[in-house]
Amino acid sequence: MFQALNRALMSRKGPILTGIAVGILAPLLTFWGNPGNMGICVACFTRDIAGALGLHRGAVVQYIRPELAGFILGSFISSLIYREYKPRTGSSPIVRFFLGFFAMIGALVFLGCPWRAYIRLSAGDLNAIPGILGLTIGVAIGIAFLWRGFSLGRNYPAKKPLGYIMPLAAITLIAFVLLRPSFGPEGSSAIFFSEKGPGSMAAPVALSLAAGLLIGWLAQRSRFCTVGALRDLIMFKDFHLFNGIIAFVIAAFVTNLLLGQFKLGFEGQPIAHTNVLWNALGMVLSGLAFTLAGGCPGRQFIMSGEGDGDAAVFILGMLFGAATAHNFSLASSGTGPGAFGPAATIIGIMFCLSVGFLMREKI
What we know:
two-stranded antiparallel ribbon; 15 helices; globular
């Protein structure tokens, strides 16, 4: 049975099967306790982890999300079993760090990663539409650079212990969420957990971790990637990965309907704002940064589990970007963009355009 499943995941059906799984699990995780229309959001969950580790003081968005630890560990286990664990690094790490940083800024201006954009749409949030259009534009701009020889350079094989760092970090995060240790005097702690707001809303740890492990496994085998899907569709007219997005949205739509979580409209959507311009431009920035870095945030977590040190550096950039966004009023809220979010978005787009122009190889 497992061999048949693996063959299916490695075939052109793989992204479809993974998309269906994510589309069902995301609304279920919301039903079980995760924030509205945020059953799975890689950017939002990274932001919550940054807050839980004390990197920012946004009191309503601090929680260690087991789903992301599950992504890493599920991918790690899968890559070991199928002999695809290949530690590598060295492809422009500092550039990848800042691509991750600005990708997170754009995502928090929109209030969601590409995965959440599709989840929001499947639950009736029409504010997701300008975000998805912006994402597509950002990916298209990135493709223009790829056509003109853009490259971050090759990576190189690394020693096996390098690839253990992210799985060990994932295990540490799981320990933190289970044990909630105190490190300071009189019971004070360096680990923070929200008492109200989105950070206080969470599905049971066991269910969250199990969902993350399953998605990590499936995505590692199928190469599921929401940004790669748009890239391949535009560049090569290849629907292989894009079929996974279609399956994802349909499965999430049906699941949300069955769970009574579908609400059509712009107003009153959970953890969303109605500013069309900055919903779009935030995702233009994210889509461009993800394309230049080679994959959506979920894919970056999956690759880090396989031993990709460059993906791990990108994730660290996202973590630092999340901390900066909430420490310096860059992140949006339900009322609209943060005070300095639009300016940071423009700066991020300029940075990514500069990287695209300057890091080209002669063809």
